[in-house]
Specification:
The complex is a heterodimer. By secondary structure, chain A is mainly α. Chain A has one domain: MetI-like (MetI-like fold), CATH 1.10.3720.10. Chain A has twelve helices and two strands; from the N terminus they run αββααααααααααα. The two termini of chain A are 28 Å apart. By secondary structure, chain B is mainly α. In chain B, α5 runs parallel beside α8, α5 packs antiparallel against α12 and α14 packs antiparallel against α15. Chain B starts with a helix and ends with a helix. Classes of the chains: A mainly alpha, B mainly alpha. Chains A and B meet through α1, α3, α4, α5 and α7 of A and α2, α3, α5, α6 and α7 of B. Chain A: One of its GO terms (biological process) is transmembrane transport.
């Protein structure tokens, strides 16, 4: 790649529109949230500066901690399954062994184009204990009806929806990465007597590393801000999904139901911080493994 | 088999290596078709459910058609409910998603091009700042943005949904990688020698070479905005401004609360509305797949 060597004044011109909006719509809200998080609305005396009191309160807030814990558990449950499936599918597509490869590729990807609202509505109906098809099937066969919307199953049911939505997206990123691996590498490996599995394991998987890391990073960010799916399932399972079910639901209900604007800003800010830290942890672990 | 006939030509073209064309595997194909069934099943259900009346939705078997299919009636009912508010939602979505996607793609393309092809003071710091922002979750940002917009009087206007969607840090990152590879410096140099200005070079030459990358950012921002729920949910409270996602969820809430009686008809509308709302994006992805897949390849490989 040729290094850009120009020192003309046009660079800032091209970068400016993005950077100005970035400043206004990205950094300013963050700064504003940080500012708001230092105040409290008091019944008497209006808004008062309280320093880090909100943060102290948040760190001891069991509702917030449970919400963060739940999304962390969700991440540990859902992401490995989803990424393993995406890797397997990408390898299968890339192997050239599949019939109907194009149809399969697009079919697995299609759920990504479905809004999470619609995905949650569809699955919510499919999960239904009364007239969902799974329940109908089970009753037809005189089997116990699985209660997907119960307290025990809910996190798994949510994980299934998210897996359904995003496996194809990750698969496409990984597949695109595989397509750019020079075929000479495979030929050299085959020449050395490596079979298809061996090539997949020793040549293709290492080549997937950067793309996989990207997928993992997006999954960290997505998991920890889980909101849409639980928020929609709240309506059909209000006793299971409480307003503090995930950290993001909690922030939302603080701001819009509880009118606790300052505390909501604190929670949002902390949640962002948790995600950035988790993302860095993922990156660091990955980089350390690369250089033993 | 007939392949033996082709062998001599293949050998002539590439004398050393023989064409590696593995035999198709039936077990692997069957396994993948089973996986495909899982991904298509809910959509099949949606398609079937859209042909049913509210009553049949509950009474007939979920994965097969009822005795009295009525897709057209459902579509008509969906579009006439509440004085045609569903069409308003679709048009709102089209407006929000269209403006956001085009704006975000052009901003990211110009920015990515600027970072890839020019050196200026603070460029590295600015780019790293954007790169770090990729990790900041949009929903954690949404509530602060709401509070800020409330101060500025932007809440409950289309701008409240469009403006935050214009800034796409990952899009800028993708376009920078893409521009570095796709636009040769020599071409820019030649255009400059011919006396073309920088802005003209960008619009006439660079933007064209950035095509697939641009379509990728455009399409993925389009999906992100089309499917966005959290931001419009908190920013808008006038049903006439809702995008289709927030509208559908409000109908779903009515269908849920209604139970029996008049509003249980809402269930059929929610289902048919869901089907209608996903069709445009699915079609867009199918038509543009050649572009977005090559654009994604650039982002997935380099880090």
């Amino acid at each position: 790649m040729a290094a850009p060597r120009r020192t003309r004044s046009a660079g800032p011109l091209f970068v400016a529109p993005f950077m100005i909006l970035f400043l206004l719509l990205f950094l300013t809200p963050l700064g504003y949230a940080a500012y708001l998080s230092l105040f409290q609305e008091r019944l008497i005396g209006g808004t008062a500066f309280v320093g880090l009191d909100n943060y102290v309160q948040a760190l001891g807030d069991s509702q917030l901690l449970h919400g963060v814990g739940r999304v962390a558990l969700f991440f540990v449950l859902q992401v490995p399954v989803m990424l393993a499936l995406a890797v397997l599918f990408a390898l299968a597509l890339d192997s050239g062994l599949l019939r109907l490869a194009r149809v399969i590729r697009l079919g697995v990807f299609v759920p990504y184009a479905v809004p999470s609202v619609v995905a949650a509505l569809m699955w919510g109906y499919l999960y239904g204990p009364d007239f969902g098809p799974f329940a109908q099937f089970a009753r037809e066969l005189s089997l116990p009806v699985p209660d997907f919307l119960s307290d025990t199953w809910m996190l798994g049911s949510l994980a299934n929806i998210v897996t359904w939505e995003f496996t194809g997206y990750n698969m496409i990123i990984l597949y695109a990465a595989l397509r750019t691996v020079p075929t000479e590498l495979y030929e050299a490996a085959a020449m050395d007597g490596a079979g298809a599995w061996r090539i997949a394991w020793s040549v293709k998987l290492p080549a997937l590393r950067p793309a996989l890391l990207l997928c993992l990073l997006f999954s960290v960010i997505g998991s920890f801000q889980l909101f849409n799916e639980p928020n929609l399932l709240t309506k059909i399972a209000p006793d299971v999904i409480t307003s503090d079910y995930t950290a993001n639901l909690y922030a939302y209900s603080l701001a819009f139901t509880g009118q606790q604007v300052n505390y909501a800003a604190t929670v949002s800010f902390l949640l962002g911080l948790v995600i950035v830290i988790a993302s860095y942890a993922v990156l660091l672990t990955a980089n350390r493994r690369r250089t033993p | 088999m007939t392949t033996t006939l082709d062998r001599p030509t293949a050998l002539r073209d590439t004398p050393v290596r023989k064409e590696r064309r593995p035999r198709r595997s039936t077990p692997l194909t069957i396994a993948m078709l089973a996986a495909l069934a899982y991904f298509l099943l809910p959509l099949l259900w949606l398609l079937i459910a859209s042909t049913k009346s509210a009553h049949d939705l509950i009474d007939s078997f979920g994965l097969w058609f009822s005795d009295a299919p009525q897709l057209l009636t459902n579509v008509k009912d969906t579009f006439t409910q509440d004085d045609g508010v569903f069409l308003t939602w679709l048009l709102n979505t089209l407006l929000y998603a269209g403006v956001s996607a085009v704006g975000a793609a052009v901003l990211a393309a110009a920015g990515g091009y600027g970072f890839a092809k020019f050196r200026f003071r603070g460029d590295r710091a600015a780019f790293n700042l954007v790169l770090g922002a990729v990790m900041v979750p949009t929903t954690a940002l949404a509530i602060p943005t709401y509070l800020l917009f409330a101060e500025a009087g932007l809440v409950n206007t289309p701008w409240a949904v469009i403006l935050p969607s214009l800034v796409n840090p990952f899009g800028l990152y993708l376009m920078r990688i893409y521009a570095a590879d796709a636009i040769p410096d020599s071409l820019l140099e030649a255009a400059r020698i011919d006396g073309a200005g920088e802005v003209r070079i960008f619009f006439r030459i660079a933007l064209r070479l950035l095509g697939p990358g641009l379509v990728t950012v455009l399409l993925f921002t389009l999906v992100a905005t089309w499917n966005n729920y959290f931001l419009p949910l908190i920013m808008l409270n006038d049903p006439d401004l809702y995008p289709v996602t927030v509208g559908l969820s409000s109908w779903a809430a009515q269908a849920q609360n209604g139970g029996a009686g008049a509003s249980s008809d809402m269930l059929a509308l929610v289902v048919t509305g869901s089907l209608l709302s996903i069709l445009p994006l699915v079609v867009a992805f199918l038509l543009l797949q050649r572009y977005w897949q090559s654009g994604l390849a650039a982002g997935g490989v380099k880090q």
